[in-house]
Here is the input.
Amino acid sequence: MILPIYIYGTEVLRHETREIDPLTEEGLAKLIDDMFETMYKADGVGLAAPQVGKSIRLFVIDADDLKDSFPETAGFKKAFINPSILEASEETVSMEEGCLSLPGLSESVTRPKWVSVRYQDSQGEWHEEKLEGFNARVFQHEFDHLEEVLFTDRVTPLRKQMIKGKLSKLSKGKVPASYRTISNK
Here is the structure.
């Protein structure tokens, strides 16, 4: 089922998220399936639970379609439950980012080049791995959603001032999205 995506300015994007037990969380498998379906419909590569109105520590990523430009993304499709970042490189990379909760807006964001992460899968198994390149970027972007952070929080103060009007329009429900959204309007 395709879920509506919560837009910049909605409270759920700034709520604290809670850890879940993948083995006992009611409806988790369906929620993960619905999140992937919603993400595909909106042409995204990642989607966090707060973006669909759930304040839980869960996000999904499928970056496989980007493998021609970013070879490391080949086969990178997972649900990440209760994720954490264990270590991050001091070396950083800047790149344009967008977000399904901020449709029509993209800005340059500087992030660590690689991260070591820990997370559970839907069977409750813990995994640790090192993510590099675009995989590291999309993981960090989605992880930020679980920490009540949006990519616009990471842009320079000058750029933030320059996009203030766009953010105001988004928060008022003036959303140029081709998918179902929920806003504060």
Summary: The chain has a mean pLDDT of 96. The two ends are 24 Å apart (CA to CA). Strands lie at 5-6, 46-48, 58-62, 77-88, 92-98, 106-112, 114-120, 126-132, 181-182. Helices lie at 28-41, 133-146, 157-162, 164-171.
